[in-house]
Amino acid sequence: MKNLFIAILTLVTLQAKADIFSPVNAQQVPRGTPPKVTQPRVEDPNMFRGKTVAILASHGVEESEIRFPYNYLVARRANVEVLVHSWTANGITASQFLMPSVFVKASATFKQALSRKYDLIVLTGGAWNAQVVRSDSEALTLIRNHYRARGPIAAICAGTSVLIDAGLARGLTMTGSPVVRPDLKNAGANYLDQPLVADKGIITSRSPDDLEYFVTGLRKILIGR
After folding, report:
1. How does 16-40 read in b/e, with b if 16+ C-beta sit within 10 Å?
2. In b/e form, how buried is each residue of 74-92, taking b as 16+ CB within 10 angstroms?
3. pLDDT, tens digit, 9 for 90 and up, residues 45-95
């Protein structure tokens, strides 16, 4: 009888613990605080005509950090390609903090892009996104080859951590998300808490709140002004 009582008590206890889990709904998923940024006015709609830009991203990319630079570049006639992993060849899901928000159609995979030439590579943020991109050997090869050919790179927020695995952070004066600041410093980077930092053909920004500075950096690195 004692053993039966213990078994029943254990079952009730396990059931009570299991009750802490329930299906999630969209209203429960945090979206974070949208950045208060505004697209700069288009003064020259042909500013980037003839320029080809690659934006590297994966599932979990912060929506503002891919949409804002994409819209900025396309509005000025740049040819923009969204590059993704081979296992997400059709496209990726962007998020607003933790909440999946939009599907982004891909232009090509990292592997397919290895034979292509770009005027600029952009590394996007979003913690999961950056972790996946920085662990992809083809993405890292693409970044290294581009930089060795004197191609400029722009990285924002957690996307700056990709520069560590690409072997480009050591000796670089840069910024990035405060979350990856210790990683950047441990990798030998000189970290500055500024909205935009440019050094050795690489520009970096801290967060979505810096996107207006970030796209100004894109302009300068693409056309020199």
Report:
1. eeeeeeeeeeeeeeeeeeebebeee
2. eebebbbbbbbbeebeebb
3. 999 999 999 999 999 999 999 999 999 999 999 999 999 999 999 999 999
Q: Mean of the pLDDT values across residues 93-110? A: 93
In a domain, 164, yes or no: yes
What is the number of helices (H) and of strands (E) in the chain?
A: 8, 11
What are the phi and psi torsion angles at 21 (to 5°)? -100, 135
Residue 49, Cβ neighbours under 10 Å: how many? 11
CB atoms within 10 A of CB 185: 12
Integer Cα distance of 23 and 207 in angstroms = 31
Q: Where are the alpha helices (DSSP H) in 187-223?
A: 211-223
Q: Are strands 202-205 and 197-199 parallel, antiparallel or unpaired?
A: antiparallel
Cβ-contact 151, 119 below 8 angstroms: yes
Helices (H), 108-197: 110-113, 127-134, 137-148, 162-165, 181-186
Q: Could you tell me if residue 109 is inside a domain?
A: yes
Q: Tell me if 62 is assigned to some domain.
A: yes
Distances (CA, A) of 220 to 16, 149, 188, 197: 59, 19, 26, 12
Residue 103: is it exposed, middle or buried by C-beta count within 10 angstroms (0-12/13-18/19+)? exposed
The boundaries of the domain holding residue 67 are 44-223
Are 114 and 108 in contact, with CB atoms under 8 Å apart?
Answer: no
Locate 35 and state its tokens: 């950045």
Q: How many domains does the chain have?
A: 1
**Domain contains 34:** no
**What CATH number did the domain enclosing 94 receive?**
3.40.50.880
